[in-house]
Amino acid sequence: MKISLRLRLVAYGVLGGLYLVVFVAGTAFVALPVLEDVDRALAPLQHVFREIEERQRHVLSDIAALDSLVDQPGAPALHPALSSGDRSHRASPSLLARYSRELSVDAARRLAVVEDALAGIESAVSEAAAIYELGNIAGARAALARIRDAEDEVQKGVTEAMVVALNTGLAARERFQDSVQKLWVFASVRLIGGLLLLVLIAVDASRHFLRPIAALEAGMRRIADGDWSRPVAVPHQDEFGQLARQFNALTETLEQRAGQHAQLATAGELLAGVAHELNNPLQAIRGIAELKSAETGAGDWATVLAEARRASKVARELERFVRPARRMVERVALNDVVRGALGLIGFQYRADGIVIEMDLGGRLPDVWADPHELVQVLVNLLGNAHAALARNTGPRTVLVRTWADDSHVWCRIRDNGPGIPEDVRGRIFSPFFSTREGGVGLGLTVSRNMVRTAGGELVLDPGPSGGGGGASLTFWLPPAPAETVSGGNGAAPVAGGARPQGSLRDRVIVVADDEDAIRNVLERFLRREGSRVIAAPGGREVLAIIRAEPVDAVVLDMRMPDLDGARVYQALQAERADVASRTVFLSGDITGVAEELGVPDHRVLLKPIELADLKRVLLRLIDGA
Amino acid sequence: MGRACRFALLVLLASACRRDAARARVGIAIEPAWYAAVRLAQEDLGDIPMDIVADSTRNVQVTASALEYATWLADNGAAVVIGHSGSRGSVAASAVYADRDVAQVAPLATSRELAPQVFSLVPDDSAEGAFIGAFVDTALHGTRVALLYHNDEYGLGIRDGVVSELGRRKIAVVDERFLVPQGEVNVSLHVEPLLEAALRSGPDVLVLGARVVETRNVGAYLRRTGRRIPVVSGDGAYVLPNTLQARDLSVMDGMHIVRFWGPDRDSISADFARRFEARTGYAPEQAEAATYDAVMLVGRAVREGARTSGDFRRFLAGLGRERPPVRGLLSTYEFERGRPVRALMEMGVVRGGQLTVPASR
């Protein structure tokens, strides 16, 4: 039977209260009647004997008074009270009428006898007094003698009555003692009962409160330790049972989401790995295309170069998206971020024939944020818009607009899809809420958190709820403090700048890369620049060359099989610090190589590199520019 | 539904029949002399399911034996008891009846000590005492009153009522003397010295709370000594043994006695007296009349289905309320706190050995 915890607690309270009532009331019910019984048995006897004693005392006093008079010479006058049969001592006519209900029949009978006898003596005293008044002293004496005899009978009656009273008292005492015994038993039973009740309540409370709490606690610890396999047991159908079921459901959802997330992460990693691996072939392609287009001018090679550059950018952005570096907040041009995101997701739109309309504001203030996070936000928003339009028929358009006002830099993504129904508008930023089948439900949550971290806010614009009105989301960010306004058209300041000035003619430059194609391209480029190039396929060869002859600079790939770039640099620093200071590093990883090596950022070029960038950096290092 | 109704009706009828089939057990605790009235009442009631429980050999007046007899009646299943004869016995026995749940109808008990759940057919002694006191004042114009009374419930009750009324009327009580009480008393008293001593106080009226023997003795003494003093007595002086001698009140001629009934009261009373005398050979007095009324009331209750003590109490308490009052010899009965609301008290005077009520009443 389902019993709610509230009902259970109420039951505990009621049981405890009932126990108390029963204990107190029971004790009272057992004790009070006993006390009343004893009082009833003894009190009337007490009153009766007191009154009989009083009457007897008066009668004896009257007799004594009369006695003394008859013995006195001259027959003194009677006291008026004696002569008139003063009844002042008779407070009430009949003890029997007042107490007979409280006495046993035997006691009442004996009392009646005593009372009758006393009344008779009082009447006899009255007669004796009358005889005395009439002057018949002898008659009075005779009457007094008869009274004394009668009085003995009264005394006997009183004594008998007292025996009865004593027996009554003894019987009452025995009953009292029996009842005290019963009371002890009653109290003991109730106490034991109370203890049992406490134990039962404790056991029940332990089963229905403590154990479920402990089970939930253990379940949470298991989740924290990564064990999703064992649900919390649901032994009862009460509130804890419901809580356990909810907890298990939440765990299942989290597990599914985590699985999906893991799958996505794995896919992302795979993708990032592919993107990374594309760096070297793209380097070769770009390098050859750059050389050839420099030789032949515009034409096919220029096209190849442009496309190779585009492919490089996509690969880099993709890698950065999947493997964000540690958060690095910097001055960011929002329009560049928009373009970067479009670069990543634009192909989906093209493939599905969805038009992206761009309305990017000119001369937007930079914002202060992690560019990779902003790219992620825009990719999320554009991805949602794409998904919303996926099943639409008719013209499908997504508008991307940026603008700025006095206090904020704005970005809006609006689609002409089915829109967001009114009943879900309030939940779209909730974790794990998704309207897409198979959706993780974290995109907008994470995006909003990223925007907020950058000091801004992401909101769903008010608009028609569903029915084809489209959805519009807008985020704003505060502008970065001071500095120049970016038009948003410049390249990322990795190694950008004007066309390098100076010459590498007659410079001895070692090119170290285990990839033949890349080594060849770099060698051809530098030779074209007039340098004497010494190619090294591996790190050991670099060191051997450096030890053998003077070198002006080294172009060093970081990933080489025998001795990687970092170890080569370490050796250079030890043996030829001058050469080490003129080493340019080539890396396919976007993580902090420069920081790792302890060199300025400009000495690390990310593959696939621009050959002009390489020349610029070499000139800077060799000439100290 | 029809079957259920028929079944319910059958059960009701069966229970009613069973109730009627049971007989009421009525205890009698009166003087042996009054049994003639019981028998006459039984004849007048006809065949009703009433069984009489009685032991006429027991003394119902003396307290100790009254208690034992009351216990005996209760043990023998009496649902209602008519008795006891006088106040003291009735008061004593009422404790047993209350404890054993037996209804009680006391025909002639005037004591105030009687509990309200006991139905008495006469007023209490406070009312009687006040009646006597008023008579002393208005009829006898007494100014100095001497009291002789039994030292028991009856005598003391009359005394208290008279003294209270006289006090209200500013009439002096110059002397009081105890007479021997009723009960187990191992003294015997003579009325003469008490009376003589009382008369020495110079009263102009003598009030007696005495029974018939003492009243006779007072009357005889006054005649013997030639004393002429108005004497007024309570109803106890008119509770007469059923002997011709006892019913001859000549020695009390001129005395005023409170009576609750007389055969000359009305036609019903006259008819009762005639039938009683035809049966017994002597005229009934108020004790027989009260006993007759008590049996008739109880019999009427039995006829209307009373079987338990509660039934009898409800019947009697309901007279004048749920059911019409019942006309009896002493009164038309309806009760208030156990006393008849319309009880008649008359001040009779003994003339020619008979207690009569003057025509001016």
Structure description:
The complex is a heterodimer of chains A (625) and B (361). In chain A, strand 4 (397-404) and strand 5 form a beta hairpin. Chain A is 61% helix and 10% strand. By secondary structure, chain A is α/β, with parallel strands linked by helices. Chain A is rod-shaped and about 180 Å long. The mean pLDDT of chain B is 88. In chain B, strand 1, helix 2 and strand 2 form a beta-alpha-beta unit. Chain B has helices spanning 2-21, 35-45, 63-75, 87-100, 125-138, 153-168, 191-199, 212-225, 244-247, 267-280, 286-303, 309-317, and strands at 24-29, 50-54, 80-83, 103-106, 119-120, 144-150, 172-179, 205-209, 231-233, 256-259, 326-327, 332-333, 335-336, 339-340, 346-351, 354-356. Chain B starts with a helix and ends in a 5-residue tail after the last strand.
Outline the secondary-structure elements.
The complex is a heterodimer of chains A (625) and B (361).
Chain A (H helix, E strand, L loop, with lengths): L4 H66 L9 H4 L11 H5 L5 H29 L3 H88 L14 H58 L3 H23 L7 E3 L1 H19 L2 E6 L6 E3 L1 H19 L7 E8 L4 E7 L6 H4 L17 H11 L3 E4 L11 E6 L30 E5 L3 H13 L3 E5 L2 H10 L4 E5 L7 H11 L1 H4 L2 E5 L5 H5 L6 E3 L4 H13 L2
Parallel strand pairs in A: 2-4, 8-9, 8-10, 10-11, 11-12
Antiparallel strand pairs in A: 1-3, 4-5, 5-7, 6-7
Chain B lengths: L1 H20 L2 E6 L5 H11 L4 E5 L8 H13 L4 E4 L3 H14 L2 E4 L12 E2 L4 H14 L5 E7 L2 H16 L3 E8 L11 H9 L5 E5 L2 H14 L5 E3 L10 H4 L8 E4 L7 H14 L5 H18 L5 H9 L8 E2 L4 E2 L1 E2 L2 E2 L5 E6 L2 E3 L5
Parallel strand pairs in B: 1-2, 1-3, 3-4, 4-5, 6-7, 6-8, 8-9, 9-10
Antiparallel strand pairs in B: 10-15, 11-12, 13-14, 15-16
Helix pairs in contact in B: 2-11, 3-4, 5-6, 11-12
